[in-house]
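All the exercises in this workshop are built on plain-text protein records. Sequence and backbone structure share a record, each on its own labelled line. The question running through the whole workshop is how a given chain folds. The record below serves as our worked example for the rest of this section.
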Amino acid sequence: MQGDWADWSAGSNGVAGTLFKVYAGTGQGNGTPFITINRGALKGVSIWYPNQNPASITPYPFAISINSDVVVQDVALINPYQGILAYSAAKHVISKVFGSPLYTGIQVDEQYDISQQEDVRFSPDYWSASQLPGMPVLGGPHAAWMRANGAAERLFRADGEACMNVFISGYNIGVYGQLGVNGAPAASFYNSSVSNCATAYLDAAGGGNTGMEFTLCTLDGDAAVDRRPACKE
């Protein structure tokens, strides 16, 4: 499925191109995702939750759920409570995705083959830049909520998640390595940056099978790296 795409993130005129308005799932954090893709692709859309209140954040299901051999490209996640769920999603590609996912940006688990993220940009500022009705001001209450509660990347069992040019700012946890039912994450980040987070990288997976790798990366927060004994959320 392909929309009429324009990358509005660098401009000042707000959202351009195909826009999905999502109303379903209010208060249902574990509900059915808005879009589910199995061996297909989603390209060139913005996803917006008009009823999300920046001063009183409400749970919603994931905006996008992907399985194996899926591409998500040129997608703006304007203000979903949860962005992309990659569960049992071998060989996925997440490319040129930006926005302000509030609680979770991308969550990966049960991933047993090399997959890729490139040019992923998450921060509270994109919702403010959307110019959509009800948008919060820069640094508004949504930003404080994300800084206290949100995680941009939640990585559970992930065998070879290759992440390049990932830029994260303004979350409680930038990259969160967690112990899944069947193991821990083995992911690499290259030429990436995590800034203005309470914890830039939180390792709660006990080191994992091969662990996490950061090359040419900036990890900046109240704590840059926090390693804890293996635990499940």
